[in-house]
User: Fold this.
Amino acid sequence: MVQQRRGRCGATAAFVVSGVTVSMMLGSTGCSRDGAAADDQRAADPVDAVRAAADGLVRAGSSKARTSMEMASGGTRVTIRGEGSYDFTRRLGRLEVLLPQDPAGADEHRPITELLAPGALYMKNRGAGVPADKWVRIDTATLSDGNLVTGGATDPLAAAELLRGARKVTYEGTVDLAGTRVRHYRGTAEIGRAARLAPEHGQRPLQAAAKGFATDVVPFDAYLDDEGRLRKVRHRFSFANGTGTEQGGAAGQKAVEVASTTLLYDFGAKVRARLPESGDIFAGKIAGQ
Assistant:
């Protein structure tokens, strides 16, 4: 059980028995009562801590990001990796997504450049039939998964917005993540609830996702630093039919699991992302997946 001791203001005025510092605002001669109370509340209630993750990223401004998506395909487990940066204020990010090598040993695929924007996913090197200098634009609200997995990487801010739907959360203690002490939380989130609580511009993709998965409940592991910034989150999605671009699925079909991990670091990093001009967007038919 997490317990708190309240008393005099000072360097050790507030703490949690587990050893997690919850009052970063305290000074040697005084403290902010409102700030300390807010920190106490977040640390004392794991649900509140993870639900506030998206707001913490917006306050942080931007970061670099690494992503991975693991899934089973034809009896083989494959991993799609991405790397780039994200501006949480503008909800705009850029990732280079690398598809795995073909099982037959064919040459590796060229990285797909993805631009993540409110309501849209832009991709370059998307597939056969698309000129090399053109982008493909997809309205994420039309995807049955809201682009939580379709692009091969979960939008970092959408991954955090999904935590707004957290219901059952436990605090698992502190761990070291690339030299930073972080608090580990484990629980489940409801996509429909997250959609209702998300800011207006983030609701439609989550509303679509709430209809497209085998279950509305998504297990997660989230890692937050002492400033409440989300450093890492791993979601485990479940599909009824084995794809993220079709809705529903026949009764009795075995669920297919997809694990998506987002790692955030170097907060405040400059984000070089600009949306394509209309003339740079491909308007034809995509010949290959």
Notes: The longest strand covers residues 62-73. The helical segments are 33-44, 46-51, 53-60, 156-162, 191-197, 203-212.
